[in-house]
Amino acid sequence: MSKLSLALKPECKSDLPIKAIQFGEGNFLRCFLDWMIFRMNSQNLFNGRVLVVQPSTHGHSLPVLKSQDNLFTAILHGMENGKTVETFEIINTIADCKNAYDESDWEDLKKCITSEDLEFVFSNTTEAGIVYVQEPLPAKGCPQSFPGKLTQLLCERFKALKGKKNAGLFIMPCELIEKNGEKLREIILKLADDWKLGDDFKAYVNNECTFLNTLVDRVVSGYPKADAKRYEEQLGYEDAMMTTGETFNFLAIEGGDEVKEKLPLQKAGLNVVVASDITPYRLRKVRILNGAHTSNVPAAFLAGLDTVDQMMTHEVTGKFARSVIYDEIIPAVNLDKQMLTEFADAVVDRFMDPSLHHQLASILMNCTSKIKARVLPSILDARAKGVLPKKLCFALAAYFALYKNAGGVSPVKVQRADGKSGEFQDDQYAVEALSKAWSFYQKSESSAQSTVKAILSDTKLWGRDLSSDVDLMTMVAKLTHAVITDGILPTMRDLQENA
């Protein structure tokens, strides 16, 4: 029996007004923030939808979303009272989709940004998205960077609504960088100077727009390729944009009562904290959950594993991942150790969920910026305490090894220990820099030191010269050479046995 397309379920559609522009069409925002807005709308608390913007040239999902009337299914997994729970919801939060690189869509966006119904801008462009890029303000088409796009759109709104009470917007980035809202505002103000947009516009950005620092937490594994047919049989319709995640959700927003009123997430029963300082929540989550992902996934991927639960149950990578968390990350973080350990225990349980099929390749996306934001701070904190964290050094070595045969192009193609190949996307500069550094390697530990020094000394990658720490550089070089000559799993075993 043929199944209905999700587009043929008009009863699921919504006609609520557009109250937010969302930069990012990927699985995470759809299964996290769009799901949260759906939950608020179902209780008549927010009463608005989002206009989704594809912020990069890599996207390919907008035509599929549009073909489904912008509907998709959120499939959530979790454990309750020792039993697996699975929920299905058709999410109708997305009103329309625009591709920033389509000139007609960009002109439409410049009109949409001036709507008086609009209150929010949301984003998740990964850690690589909130960066300052010196670029011209184009006469036609959009700027290349996400902050550039937002700067031009905010200027359009400022000019159209100048002097009106509701001209300002709440801007809520969900990228996993510290003080993400403040960082985004700083870049916009710098671009305003570059483009000579004027002091009045800068005053509008500073005084009328509210930039919110946030922390997001939900594991979203994306399209359930292995289970898609089973789900479609169960649901009775086809959905090429279904996305899976865990039932656990957490959002911390730095703000006050106005944020609670404008975005009544807590009233909807969601796991949300609005506080004057979210630093402890951010530090705990980024270092332990995200840090555990980013530090362990390169090695697991090279070893031939495909999902996080496989990584955690493998006899070598699972034991290693736990040791990284409990023996090196937690001691480095300057927060209450009991709080960190309890959070880590919950994280390990979440990683073990096999129903998520969380792909290692998706975690590797924009790997370099993730290493910088999620792993490097734990290494530097450990070094400040006089500790050389060997397993985190190995994490760097495994990450470097991903690029050995990259050839300077993205997606990075990786030959794995099981003979299979894999690939992932990364920033082009990072791919070129790491690929070039491997040209120094001649299958000796001394040449590995040259490779590692070239990478660690690149201030454009790390914001500092990491090669000045000779002990760190030497250890990473030794482990990089071992990964190439002895293999990924034997090197991990040796590190465990000699810990």
In short:
The protein has about 500 residues and is of the alpha/beta class. It contains 21 helices and 17 strands.
Query: Would you give the CATH topology of the largest domain?
Result: Rossmann fold
Shape: globular
Strand order, sheet with most strands = 6-3-2-7-8-9
Unreliable stretches covering 5 or more consecutive residues: none
The secondary structure category is alpha/beta
Radius of gyration: 23 Å
**So what's the CATH class of the largest domain?**
Alpha Beta
**Architecture of the largest domain, according to CATH?**
3-Layer(aba) Sandwich
How many DSSP helices?
Answer: 21
Report the span from N to C terminus. Answer: 58 Å
Mean pLDDT over the full residue set: 94
Strand content: 15-25%
How many β strands by DSSP?
A: 17
| Sheet with the most strands, sense and barrel status | 6 strands, parallel
Number of domains: 2
What is the name of the CATH superfamily of the largest domain?
NAD(P)-binding Rossmann-like Domain
